Amino acid sequence: MRICLILEGSYPYTHGGVSSWTNQMINAMKEHEFVLWVIGPRAKDKGKFFYKIPKNVVEIKEVFLDDALRIKPDKKKLPLMKDEEKEALKDLLDCEHPNWEVLLELFQDKGVNPSSFLMSQEFLEVLQKLCDEKYPYVPFANTFHTMRSMLLPVLYMLMQDVPKADMYHTICTGYAGILAVTGGYKTGKPVLLTEHGIYSREREEEIIRAHWVQPAFKRQWIKFFYMLSDAIYTRAAKITSLFDRAMKTQIELGADPSKCSIISNGIAYERFCNIPLKAENGIIDIAAVVRIAQIKDIKSMIYAFHELKSKRSDVRLHILGGVDEEEYNEECINLVDTLGLNDDIIFAGQVDVTEYMKKIDFTILTSISEGQPLSVLESLAARRPCVTTDVGCCRDLLEGGPGDQFGVAGYLAPPMHREGIAHAMERMCRSRSEREKMGEIGRKRVDAYYRHENMIKLYEDLYKSAVNKS
Predict the structure, then answer these.
(1) What is the DSSP string of 365-416?
(2) Half-sphere exposure (CA, 13 Å, Cβ side) for 388?
(3) Do 433 and 303 share a domain, yes or no?
(4) What CATH number has the domain bearing residue 235?
(5) CA angle in degrees (0–180, nearest 5) for 69-19-276
(6) How far apart are CA 396 and CA 408, in angstroms?
(7) What is the pLDDT of residue 121?
(8) Is residue 299 a contact partner of residue 268, using CB atoms and an 8 Å limit?
(9) Which residue, 44, 181, 300, 377, has fewest beta-carbon neighbours within 10 Å?
(10) What one-character DSSP code corresponds to residue 105?
(11) Contact at 8 Å (CB) between 68 and 42?
C-alpha cells in the first residue's frame, strides 16, 4: 500500500508525541510505502527535518503557511460566479458548513487564484453583507484583514497538487484535514482521520487566551476551526481517537458514531520495563519529559516546584526535551532565575530518555491539553509513577479505565493549579515504597493495554479495511 500521512506542525520538523508516534508507525510498517504531506509554518524550514527519514518514505510534499502570503494575483479574469459558488463562499466566510465540493471545484479544478479572489468585487460583496449583519460597529478595514488572514491559508490548501496514494490519513483536523479532503476529492481514494487531541478544542483554548485576536473576532476564529474539523469529520471514511472521552467529543462535534473507533497509543514496552530503579541518594529526582511550549504549561510546573521546594529541601527537577517556542523558553529560564531555583531545576534538553530515566524517581506532566501522552506511558513502563494534570487520557493512565483493576499509578491535579500540582508532588515524595508500588502498577497497565505491536496491528487492519472498501 501507498499511504499518504498528512501532518501539521509536527513530524518531521519537530519532536514530541505526534512526531514520535509517526516515526514509529512508518518504521514498523516497512512493507508499505509512505508519502508525507506536511504543513509547516515557515518556508525557511524547508528540508530541515528533526528526524532521519525512513527508507520506505517515497515522497515528501511540503506546504508552508507563509507561502500563502506570497501568492500574487494573476491577470486571469475570475469566472462568472454561479449561485451555488456564491453561497459556498458566503458560508465559508461565515464559518457555516460550506459546500467543500463546490469550493474544491472552484480552487482545485478551475484554478481560481486565492489572492485574486480575495481582491475581487465578488469577495467584497460577500464581505460587505457579513459586516452589515455581524460587525456593523467594527471598522471595515479590520474585518477585511481578519477575514483575509482567516481564509487565505484555507484557499491555499484547496489549490494544492495532490500526491498519489491509496489513501489519505490525516493526523489532525485543521489545515491538515482540508488537505485530506482535497486528496479524497481529487483521487476518489479513502480519507482517514486520527486525532491525538481534539484540535478544534485546543485552538479554542488558545484563541480565548490570545492577545493577537481582537475581541470582536474571537468567536469567529473559534467557529472557523470548528468548521475545519467538521469538513473532515463529515468526509472521513474512518475516524479514530486514542481514548473513550475523545471519541465521545468527536461525536458531540458531529462525527458519525458508526465511523468512530478507538486505537490507543502504544510504546516499545521492552525498551523501558527493565530500566533499574534509581539508587537512594538522599535526593528525590523528578523529571518532566516535555517539549518547551505554552500548552505544556512549564511555568505552572516551575511555580509548583518552587512551592514544593519551600517544604522539602531534598528535591530536584529535570526538564527533558527540546524547545518549541524560543520566547516561552526564555520566559521559563528567567522565571527559574527569579525564583532562585537555578541549582534545583536542570534544563537537560533533548536526551536519551531510557538512559536518563535511571536517575529519576518519578515524572510530572502539567499540560493544559493532552491526548494520550507517550511520555506518561514510557514513565509507567519504567516503573516511575507520575503526577499529571487531569487532561486528556491521563486519569485513565494513572487510575485505570473501564475494566482495569490494577490500581493507582500516580496523582492528578487540575490544570494550571499550582497549589494542586505542588500538593500532588509532595504526596509522591513522601514514601519510596509507595512510589515503587505505584510504579509496578503502572508497568502492568502498560504491558496489558499499551504495547506498540498491538497498536500497529490495529492500524494495519484499519488500512486494509479502507482499501478493500474503496
Answers:
(1) E--SS-SS-HHHHHHHHTT--EEEES-TTHHHHHH--TT--S---EEEE-TT
(2) 31
(3) yes
(4) 3.40.50.2000
(5) 155
(6) 10
(7) 87
(8) no
(9) 44
(10) I
(11) no
In whole angstroms, what is the distance from residue 27 CA to residue 21 CA?
Answer: 10
pTM of the predicted protein model: 0.91
- 91: phi > 0 → left, psi -120 to 50 → alpha, else beta; which? alpha
| pLDDT tens digits, one per residue of 196-239 | 989 999 999 889 988 888 888 999 999 999 999 999 999 999 99
Find the Cα–Cα–Cα–Cα dihedral 434, 435, 438, 444, rounded to 10°. Answer: -130
Residues 251 and 174 in one domain: yes
pLDDT value for 1: 94
In the predicted model, is pLDDT for residue 333 greater than 70? yes
- As a residue count, the chain comes to 470
The three cell numbers locating residue 457: 496491528
Do the Cβ atoms of 152 and 131 come closer than 8 Å? no
Distance CA 91, CA 336 (A): 48
Q: Say if 469 falls within a structural domain.
A: no
pLDDT of residue 402: 84
The DSSP symbol for 113 reads -
Give the integer Cα–Cα distance in Å for 22 and 10: 9
More confident residue, 75 or 66: 66
Q: How many CB atoms lie within 10 A of CB 373?
A: 27
How far apart, in whole angstroms, are the C-alpha atoms of residue 384 and residue 406? 15
Cβ neighbour number for residue 428 with a 10 Å cutoff: 23
Non-local (6+) Cβ contacts of 11 within 8 A are: 18, 19, 22, 23, 36, 38, 51
Residue 354's alpha-carbon distances to 207, 230, 289, 298, 451, in angstroms, are 36, 40, 11, 22, 17
CA–CA dist 195, 180 (Å, integer): 13
Q: Kindly calculate the radius of gyration of the chain based on its CA atoms and give it in whole angstroms.
A: 24
Statement: residue 470 has pLDDT above 70: no
- What whole-number distance in Å separates Cα of residue 355 and Cα of residue 359? 8
- Mapped to the 3 state alphabet, what secondary structure does 179-225 carry? HHHHHHHHHCCCEEEEECCCHHHHHHHHHHHCCCCCHHHHHHHHHHH
Whole-angstrom Cα distance, residue 375 to residue 379? 6
**Domain assignment of residue 344, given as a range:** 269-449
Chain centroid to CA 435: 30
Residues 120 and 224 in one domain: no
Q: pLDDT tens digits for 296-330?
A: 999 999 999 999 999 999 999 999 998 988 999 99
Residue 338 counted as domain residue: yes
One-letter amino acid identity for 141?
A
Lowest mean pLDDT among 57-66, 80-89, 221-230, 307-316: 80-89
CB-CB contact of 398 with 412 (8 Å): yes
